[in-house]
Amino acid sequence: MPSLGADMEAGTLVEWLVRPGDRVTRGDIVAVVETQKGAIEIEIFEDGIVHSLDVELGARLPVGAQLATILSDGEAPPSAPAAPIPDTPSCAAVAPEMSAPPPRPDTTAPVPTGFGIAASPAARHRAAECGLDLAGVTGRGPDGAILLADVEAAATGGTTKGTPRPAATSDAMAQMRKAIAAAMQRSKREIPHFQLAQTIDIHTASDWLAARNADVPPGERILLGTLFMKAAAVAAANVKEMNGHYEADGFRPAPGVNLGVAVALRGGGLVAPAIPDADRLPLPALMAAMKDLVSRARAMRLRSSELTTGTLTVSSLGETGADAMSGIIFPPQVALLGIGAPKLRPWVLDGTVVPRRLATFTLSADHRVSDGRQANRFLAEIETALQHPEAL
Amino acid sequence: MTREDARIAFLEELVKVAPDLDPGSIADGDHIQADLELDSMDVLNLVAALHERLGVNIPEPDYVKIATPALASVYLSQRLAG
Lengths: 392, 82
Fold this sequence. Notes:
The complex is a heterodimer.
Chain A: E1 10-16, E2 23-24, E3 29-35, E4 38-43, E5 48-53, E6 60-62, E7 68-71, H1 121-130, H2 148-155, H3 170-190, E8 193-201, H4 203-214, H5 224-238, E9 244-247, E10 250-253, E11 259-261, E12 263-264, E13 270-271, E14 274-275, H6 283-298, E15 302-303, H7 304-308, E16 312-316, E17 335-339, E18 343-349, E19 352-366, H8 372-387
Chain B: H1 3-17, H2 40-54, H3 69-81
Organism (chain B): Aliiruegeria haliotis
Domain Carrier (chain B): 1-80
InterPro entries (chain B): ACP-like_sf, PP-bd_ACP
């Protein structure tokens, strides 16, 4: 059971996507685990052959527990026989009033249904197995997303189409709140935070972007937030003390910038999945990556690597709201950039007070790793980058 | 396109962008950001969806003209009448 963040203690295995004998390659999605942050697709970190699946579906396991045995080429299997995997519980309990379509022939692989409905991969898979239409299932995950348990409940007649949506997805929300609390308490306990804030004139960047967006259809427009993300990623690439992980043996700067993007979920809670090598992505590619990440975060289809590889997180308040935010670092990272909402404010330019669009960038940094000097340099890098948006 | 048709199209696309919203409880005067809590990414997705569905390319300076269902139905019906 991989750790999917500093806050994770255990996870529930809900789906295997491989069988014994399958060949797997690093990066393949092999299983789905439900956590306090929703269902996460688990990627494998080595090449090899699946020898055995060692855990039953539905089992709740601590971080570090063995899920499966993967043998590299030529490696002998372990002597102890693996525990057998029981069959998935039958779908026979589907309530008759569900008017489910006839069961598929058992030779056919289940086909995901309900595209466009927010549901975990495990829930989708199970619904397909049971011939259940996801449109008739009430989701109790974040943003009303359908979880495996919801499908199981529906399959046994617990919930049918027409049930009013719950007033709040209170349980899943409470779980996520707990996960956030655990990570932030650990951060406040272990990381000696310090903060530096700088108000930056973003008028040039904002005008440049407006002119660019005026010439393209909505599908190709780029958000101001994406420009900020790119500037932050470039700054992180240049100031190593802000980009990496603090482990038991101290700080390890990261070779690349995997930019964590704090995504607020509708209804509450947030996750901060990472975009790999964000400093090297051109703006349209970074925008596409952000769109993809936000939609998958809300539909609960994030991958394990996205939750664990972030090297610096950016949290933006968006285009309206408060002036500034000084955030809490997400361990094991060592810095977090909070960006306030841009505002039109008086500003002195060439000796004259003029209205300019300004935004306040607040860097929270880890005093075990850096001092004000590096934090200052990071903010200065962002300011410089935003004065030349065409180069981003 | 009539205002009513425009309102229906707008609400349908709005609910696709924010599936947790109940279309029956959205008031005509609800502000999509202040009241319905869409963020800038959601607004862009809504504008892109309206472009796709109605062929109306809403420029950024006009986003304020679709800030509520009431405003949007007027704006979209006018754009489609012209």
